[in-house]
Amino acid sequence: MKELFQHAATTDGVTVRVAVNFLPEQSQPEAGKWFWVYHIRIENGSNETIQLRTRHWRITDGRGMVNHVDGEGVVGEQPLLKPGQSHDYVSGCPLATPHGSMEGFYTFTDEGGEPWEVRIPYFPLAAPAEAE
């Protein structure tokens, strides 16, 4: 997978970077299934130690159907990030259309237990023309 982060958003010193790639070997266009993998890097540029608690995704397919996904942590983890640290993970998204998008936010807590939201940038999911 290319490690080029195409999308980024910064909230209160915390940057979320996203690299997304279409996976033809996991897709079945003839069956109406397309699959992308995305690599997220969360960088703590704040002065506080923070912990990722929850995630909220808004996934939109090419027909405009919206699916909201909420859950604890990311891929089974709730990483603790000291100032200057980062956390990387990889996950995937299936769609029933060859185009769509994802965006959302993470909820972190700071050292005092205060929750705050960190934006996940909008990023498109687009299959190459030959996979449509």
Automatic annotation (TrEMBL):
Q: Which PROSITE patterns match?
A: APAG (PS51087)
The domain of life is Bacteria
SUPFAM superfamilies per the record? Answer: ApaG-like
Question: Start and end of every ApaG domain?
Answer: 8-132
InterPro entries found in the cross-reference section: ApaG-like (IPR050718), ApaG_domain (IPR007474), ApaG_sf (IPR036767), Uncharacterised_ApaG (IPR023065)
Q: Which NCBIfam families did the record assign?
A: PRK05461.1 (NF003967)
Q: Which PANTHER family match?
A: OS05G0170800 PROTEIN (PTHR47191:SF2)
Q: Which HAMAP family match?
A: ApaG
Q: What is this protein called?
A: Protein ApaG
Organism annotation: Parerythrobacter lacustris
- What is the phylogenetic placement of the source species in the record? Bacteria, Pseudomonadati, Pseudomonadota, Alphaproteobacteria, Sphingomonadales
